[in-house]
Amino acid sequence: QVQLVESGGGLVQAGGSLRLSCAASGRTFSSYAVGWFRRAPGKDREFVAAISLSGRSTYYAESVKGRFSMSRDNAKNTVYLQMNSLKPEDTAVYYCAATLRLRGPDPDPSKYDYWGQGTQVTVSS
Q1: Cα 24–Cα 18–Cα 7 angle in degrees, nearest 5
Q2: CA 18/CA 2 separation, integer angstroms
Q3: Which of 20, 57, 66, 74 has the lowest tally of Cβ within 10 angstroms?
Q4: Beta carbons of 80 and 119 less than 8 angstroms apart
């Protein structure tokens, strides 16, 4: 198993930035592909971004492409989500997820086996 803990959420005005972190423990981090997902109030969980084992490949939801950037530092067992130009519709609980079954980025949440507790991001207008 691997344990994931998100941090970095908070309250920010529209147009501002936040950087989320996902710290992993309990398993070799470099063996996992990782994704970010979010659940907005009254909405279903949706894909945000994903990254390959090496961090060389990333994939983003159309709604965040050009504004969000995902990266990983395997030496620090940490994945990041840099969020710029935030919009009120980005308000959600953001979750980090990981899987041993993938090498490349994938937007399907059913392919991820391990999930963090989530961190709240609130964007005001």
Answers
A1: 30
A2: 25
A3: 66
A4: no
